[in-house]
Amino acid sequence: MTRSLLVLSTAAGLAVGLPAAAQQAGGAVQLEEIQVEGQGATRSSGASGAAGVVSNDGYVAKTTRTATKTDTPVNETPATINTVTQKQIADRNPQNLQEALNYTPGVRTGAFGFDPRFDSFFIRGVDVTYTGVFRDGLRQFSSPSGLFRLEPYGVEAISILKGPSSALYGAGASVGVIDLISKRPTDYKFGEVEVQTGSFDRKQASFDIGGPLNEQGTVLYRLTALGRDANTEMARVPDDRFFIAPAVTFRPSDATEITVLSEFLHGKTGGSAAFVNSYDALGNVTGATRTPLANGDFNDFTQDQGRIGYEFKHAFSDSVSLHQNARFSALSQREEYNGRYDAVSEAGGAGLVKEQFAAFAADTYLKTDVATGPVAHTLLTGVDVSLLKYSSKYALSFYSDPDGITVPDFGDPNAYPFRSKQDQSLIGVYAQDEIKWDAWRLTLNARYDWFDSTYKSISGGVHDTQKQNDGQFTGRAGLSYVTAFGLTPYVGYGTSFVPNPGTVIDGTVTKPTVGEQIEAGVKYTFPDVNATINASVFHLKQDDGVVYAVVDAQNKQTQLDFRSRGFEIEGAATFENGVSLLASYAYTDTRIAKPDSIKGKELTSTPKHAFSLWGGYDAPDGVAKGLSFGAGLRYTGRNFGDNDNRAVIANKARAFVDAKIAYELENLTPRLKGVKLQVNATNLLDKVEQVCSANYCYWDQGRQVIASLKYRW
């Protein structure tokens, strides 16, 4: 006999009854002349735009600051680095961070099906939603239900550094760092405006302008903005957004530069972006119907987020420079959600979550280039500080008629009110030495972090205070050999450390998560061709990792030990004939070590096999000049919907097709110079099946078609 329980949906696409505590851890170098591709224009430049942070040629990344905080070429770095370049973003037109990462090997997207509320994803089996996302080299903070959303129109590129990186960045995921690179001011004038329409009554307008503000070129600016009014495939769940990101660069001298980056985003969607789940007699989920949870009268999820910070660089000499990156960020959200007990019952419940946080992060380091005989050293010595303060409150109400929902009252003891707040601080000191001798490259990192946290909660009138005070040493070492014919074998080892707030199921304080990984690989850059192939094998071990699972109809925080090992390969190319290719394959084998009740099981929602392929063509001349098109295939192998590996909610293998076609209208008439029409489709074949993760089930996102008309000057 099957019975159904009320399960309501909230943060990170997971189902909850009462909220669990969150899993929360708590300067430019002049490059040689390169091609910088921006939304507004493509032109040759030195350190304009994001060139000082990431440089690329089409689909192929050349350098990225993410791996070492220096401009070390990607092919020389002893670590796996995947980069979503500006050309890839422009071609695929992703609408969120998950879609932007769809073609990255080892990254699992879509584990929570259709969900416009949060960006949630896994790397090599580890959920990095809370602990792995950085913005311009600084940690992007979050709280239990407060997660910063990404507007892809505001980023220049996305760099994914695989492997433990705590020795360079502090507390972070054991599987790596996803660094979102913001659009920056340019030293040339450009502009674009764009309008979009498409599926589900989509209406969107945006613009991106920038350039010098004075004749001397010592003050540069950029202003990027977007507004959207749209529905989604789920009734009563909108996808509305307003986004604006001003940026300005000051260059008072050749030795000094400061760039101010800021953003404000207001978003509105639905708090009940999920479907009714059914349960067996033991309380285990058995699947989801296509019956929406939402009642439109109480389902608004609004969020305001903002950030302002700066990147400062001063060169004391050709070999010594000081860098400081700092950012203040804040978020406020109000989430209404509701749901029925089952697909036919009129009775159900509603929840209300209000949450806000303020955070500050600063990273200051000295970069020194020295030589000891034939050996060259690039030294970084730094200190960074991270501060987070958040508060959260939650309440429930129950109803017999969905048209008569009572707004939950935080002061009503029958509403199971829950309040929490937390103060976190993390201070770290670190050093890095990049050693170059002949064809050898050796990178060494060492760091020590001090973490302090005070967590207070009130539930059912019971007050609880928990404090954590931890310190941890982390390290990283990597060795590569750069051959003259483009082949670079490498090996690396690193450790990670993440302090965790809150409690687990039995009420005890969570332990810090620690991890270690060894990796070996090879990179090949084709001579005289803009193409690369990177392959690696890895073995990762993580202890006391915090995961979420639906237990007794509530989303609860648990901890487990596991190991992950596998193989990844990625190829990227942009040829002179207009053809671009991106292909990858990932094999990921995970096994849980503790607790003993699930020892030997595979991690939830982690497929052993996954591959993707995207190909594009931009006609450079001839009768088809101005025409471009592309298509992609994403395959996800069979995986399990919970850590018990129950067959009833196992996810079968599936594949999705995406496509794009565009045309530069200038080729019809010179009067339309700069005008481009583009159409993108995700899940073109509209393949929609049930997908389960962490003991709760969802449905894949269906087909979405977006048409855009853009004018550039």
UniProtKB/TrEMBL annotation:
Membrane topology: Multi-pass membrane protein
Alphabetized CDD domains for the sequence: ligand_gated_channel
Residues of the TonB-dependent receptor plug domain: 74-177
Annotated signal sequence range: 1-22
Pfam families, A to Z: Plug (PF07715), TonB_dep_Rec_b-barrel (PF00593)
Subcellular location: Cell outer membrane
Transport found in the keyword field: yes
Family under the similarity heading: Belongs to the TonB-dependent receptor family.
Protein's UniProt name: TonB-dependent siderophore receptor
